[in-house]
Model the fold of this input.
Amino acid sequence: MSLDAFLQHAKLHHIGAVVADLDAASATYVNLGFGQPEMIEIPEQGIRAAFFSLGRGSIELLQPVDPDGAIGKFMAKRGEGFHHVAYQVDDLVATLAELESRGIELIDHTPRRGAHGLHIAFLHPRSANGVLVELVQEPEH
Done:
């Protein structure tokens, strides 16, 4: 897939925010009218997460449970707040190859497993004006 095709077909999948207390933050979002979240733990990433459906996308709240994990380090350095924006792509491997060929700095050169069995990869914020970008491909059923 060309980068142009990626840009034409990519869809906003979710936005992620880091929180210190997932239960308290989730209660705030419920109080704002977002409905009940799906709560999950992702031990290999050292996080607990809450997903709130929001139209065609979702909001992902992330609480670090491992201070040495990526989210734990983020929390220690920057505190709570916006963490990443995720876009859904049809072919993650091809998209990563195309982006890398265009000089985009990748954090993940190959997809890894994320929440809900998604295939994910991150682009370095230096390549996206300071924003951490996650690319997501839905698993094949």
Summary: The chain has a mean pLDDT of 91. The CA atoms of residues 42 and 48 lie 6 Å apart. The two ends are 21 Å apart (CA to CA). The chain has one domain: 3-137.
